[in-house]
Specification:
This protein has about 220 residues and is α/β, with parallel strands linked by helices. The chain has one domain: 3-Layer(aba) Sandwich (Rossmann fold). The protein has helices spanning about 30-45, 65-80, 95, 100-105, 110-120, 170-180, 195-200, and strands spanning about 5, 15, 20-25, 55-60, 80-85, 125-130, 135-140, 150-155, 180-190, 205-210, 215-220. The strands form 2 sheets. An 8-stranded mixed beta sheet has the order 6-7-5-4-8-9-11-10, with helices on both faces. It has a 3-stranded antiparallel beta sheet with strand order 1-2-3, with no helix packed on it. The longest helix is centred in the N-terminal third of the chain and has 18 residues, at about 30-45. The mean pLDDT is about 95.
Length: about 220
């Protein structure tokens, strides 16, 4: 499918797929969405748990690497070690990566080097990118995930249920539930009733939270057994 680099409402870029009328990130602001959904509603609350000295994260849809970038940024502030695992079936091409402006727009002099490293690092291998951030990129379909009780936090950033409803099914969300440690948390930009009902069916405790700019609500789900 044709893919285009576009500029979103906050000045940050993303990839647009015209055939689906779908973006990798919110057209209202890619960077704002990533920080709100995954950092403010996910990583920061988890980081307050005194028993967690290292936070293990699974990202569903590694995509452009934006969520990894803002997680690295916050890890430096928190002084917390992040073990980051990104799953992606169709990696973004290097020529597309070079056109994304995330490193420049977050105004951190170290961001360019970090962003280059995460995209240059080998797939299927754990790589220590910085003192507080290690990365494992896995190229596979979400349906192939069989992890059990490995993660404290899941960033669920798949394409929307409008274009890929199978990624928001009970089957996939049960895999997410199983992959989390007890009291682990899944955060997502989605707020559809069907997604919330599927989360409840597999056993999650589900909260509706204020969404990022341009979206009224988002969901946070906790595994509590």
């Amino acid at each position: 499918m044709k893919r285009e680099i576009i500029i979103t409402g906050d000045g940050s870029s993303t990839i647009h797929i015209p055939e689906w009328n779908e973006q990798y990130h919110s057209k209202h602001g890619a960077l704002q969405e990533a920080r709100h959904v995954f950092i403010d509603m996910g990583l920061i609350p988890i980081s307050r748990r005194e028993d967690l000295h290292e936070i293990s994260i699974l990202e569903i849809g590694f995509g452009t690497g934006l969520n990894a970038l803002v997680t690295w940024e916050e890890a430096q502030n928190l002084k917390k070690s992040i073990d980051y695992n990104g799953v992606e079936a169709y990696p973004v091409a290097q020529e597309e990566v070079e056109k994304l402006n995330f490193s420049a727009i977050i105004k951190d002099p170290l961001a360019v080097g970090f962003f280059d490293k995460i995209h240059e690092s080998e797939w299927e291998k754990k790589v220590e990118i910085t003192k507080y951030f290690s990365l494992t990129k896995q190229q596979k379909f979400f349906q192939e995930i069989e992890d059990t009780q490995l993660y404290n936090l899941i960033y669920f950033d798949a394409f929307g249920a409008r274009v890929q409803p199978e990624l928001w099914s009970v089957e996939i969300l049960r895999k997410m539930y199983n992959a989390l440690k007890n009291n682990g948390v899944l955060v997502t930009y989605a707020a559809k009733g069907s997604v919330r009902r599927a989360m409840l069916e597999v056993g999650f405790l589900v909260e509706r939270l204020p969404g990022p700019p341009g979206k009224r609500e988002m969901l946070r789900a906790t595994k509590n057994i």
